[in-house]
Amino acid sequence: MKKSILLSLCLLCSCTTTHQSKQTEISTADARISLGVAYLQNNQREHARSNLLKAEKAAPEYIGTLMAMAYYYDFIGEMTQASQTYLQALSIYPKQPDLLNNYGTFLCKHGHYKAALNYFQKAYIQTDYIKVADSLENAGLCAFRAGKISMAQKMFKQAISYEPDKKVSHFYLIYIENGKRGTHD
Q: Is there a domain that residue 18 lies in?
């Protein structure tokens, strides 16, 4: 009996230590990600890379690290590496809505409209997703870029139904409506 209690306590301490260690790794990664993104925004690519690589070393499979690295690779024009990083993240977090939305944005930006629309849909159908309007608006923008105006209009209307203050969606709806009437400003 004493051995089983002792074993249970050891396992509990081990789990607590592992949990604390994981939290420390994630906190370290988050700090490095924040710095890396700030450096990217100031176009200081080497400092950004250094901090993001430190985040990757601290927590290589953490969703924040993977998304930041994919963003970094896209930012510096390494499309293949960005795509591979997104796919790696999706293999670990296949239903993470922010990741699905970001990958959809990446795909649309590079002209892969059909695949992008699929990822936006996967994002906005997640029941726990709080940024549904953002994914719908992104889907609308992508459909618009692809020349699918009716689909874009539908997505913009849905985005507005979730968040009535979506200015971009309102702008594109007005633009589409004016285009249908034959007036172009």
A: no
